[in-house]
Amino acid sequence: MSNPATTDSAVVYDNVFTTPLDKAARFSFDEQVVACFPDMIRRSVPGYGQMLAMLPIFAKRHCQAGQVNSEGKRVSRVYDLGCSLGGATMALLNEKGGFGKEELQIKAVDISPAMTQKAEVLLQENYPEHDIEVITADIRGFELEPCDMVILNLTLQFLPPEDRTQVLQNIYNALNDGGILVLTEKTHTGDEQDDAWLVERYYDFKRANGYSELEISGKRNALENVLITDTLDQHHQRLSEVGFNRSLTWFQFLNFASMIAFK
Ligand SMILES: Nc1ncnc2c1ncn2[C@@H]1O[C@H](C[S@+](CC[C@H]([NH3+])C(=O)[O-])CC(=O)[O-])[C@@H](O)[C@H]1O
Ligand SMILES: O=C(O)C(=O)Cc1ccccc1
């Protein structure tokens, strides 16, 4: 099945891997990926929409307005780390969450300037009156202010494994008591047979969403050593190591899973 052409509609379809690439080409969040990102992530991450839809529900239960904003009002501060185009931020502000304009202060951080430039425009267009700051920064070594909720939606997997504990430690330290971290990741199980089955069904999922064999294998090569998965056990172990005394997997769809950790 071929991709719909990148023509007149508002949707820019993901055509990034439609032509063969140098095998060594690494995946990067550049202008080309940014342009088609909403389509790419929707067609490539099973359950993406369902995961995002729960964010305002979790926020409503666990954000305790632990901060005071510049106008002296109590607000809940939320970090969206590796925000890309602000999909998670926008999900939080969706009317289903029922947050008033002044109840949340969101800080959305991403290392890719191409992403943050576009996120800034989209968030300003859609939520002009909300307290949202878009920050271009590496979340490694980034200083977090005290907060009620942190979202790491499909971001930790792009950090070198040796940097992951430190990032989670900073998050744990910044969270107020009662605060939460929502951590969504592509995972593997460590069982050869199970992983082979999960990966094959994941590729079936991509085929069903219109990706060709060339696109699937091109992206697989480009993601090698760029997106490095952990097992769910490794994630929960790391969360426990940095101090979270409770974490659970609340969502799983093939090899993608989302966890919540409670401080
Ligand atoms: N060190 C880093 N510091 C900051 N950002 C980083 C870093 N490394 C990678 N990123 C950023 O992490 C994001 C990962 S995408 C997140 C989706 C989003 N959360 C969503 O809910 O739509 C997931 C995906 O594309 O599979 C990209 O925008 C990178 O620039
Ligand atoms: O497409 C893949 O293979 C993925 O693992 C998901 C994804 C989605 C968007 C950018 C990078 C990876």
TrEMBL record:
Coiled coil spans: none
Pfam family, one: Methyltransf_25
Membrane spanning residue stretches: none
Swiss-Prot/TrEMBL GO biological process terms: methylation; tRNA wobble uridine modification
Alphabetized PANTHER family for the sequence: CARBOXY-S-ADENOSYL-L-METHIONINE SYNTHASE, TRANS-ACONITATE 2-METHYLTRANSFERASE-RELATED
Subunit details: Homodimer.
Family according to the record: Belongs to the class I-like SAM-binding methyltransferase superfamily. Cx-SAM synthase family.
Chain's role: Catalyzes the conversion of S-adenosyl-L-methionine (SAM) to carboxy-S-adenosyl-L-methionine (Cx-SAM).
Record-given protein name: Carboxy-S-adenosyl-L-methionine synthase
